[in-house]
Specification:
Length: 79
């Protein structure tokens, strides 16, 4: 958790020229739209099962992986 605390404290994001992908756990009450202002083309939000702590663990990791794979394949196809 110290790594996350340091990231929050010291990281200063800059605006990205494209679109960002946000994967949000259905049990997470935070608003993913708060990141949209950092991307000129907005954010594509994907909702998956689980919560903030378990979305990278099975059985939830598969849903996260499918969203990421779909996004990456679309990026490669459009490059």
């Amino acid at each position: 958790m110290d790594v996350y605390d340091d990231a929050i404290r010291y990281y200063c994001p800059t605006r990205y020229k494209g679109q960002i992908m946000i994967v949000k756990a259905v049990e997470d009450d935070r608003n993913p739209e708060t990141w949209s202002h950092l991307a000129r083309k907005g954010a594509k939000i994907h909702i998956i099962p689980g919560n903030h702590q378990n979305i990278l663990r099975e059985p939830y990791a598969g849903a996260w992986l499918e969203k990421l794979k779909f996004q990456l394949l679309g990026y490669v196809a459009n490059s």
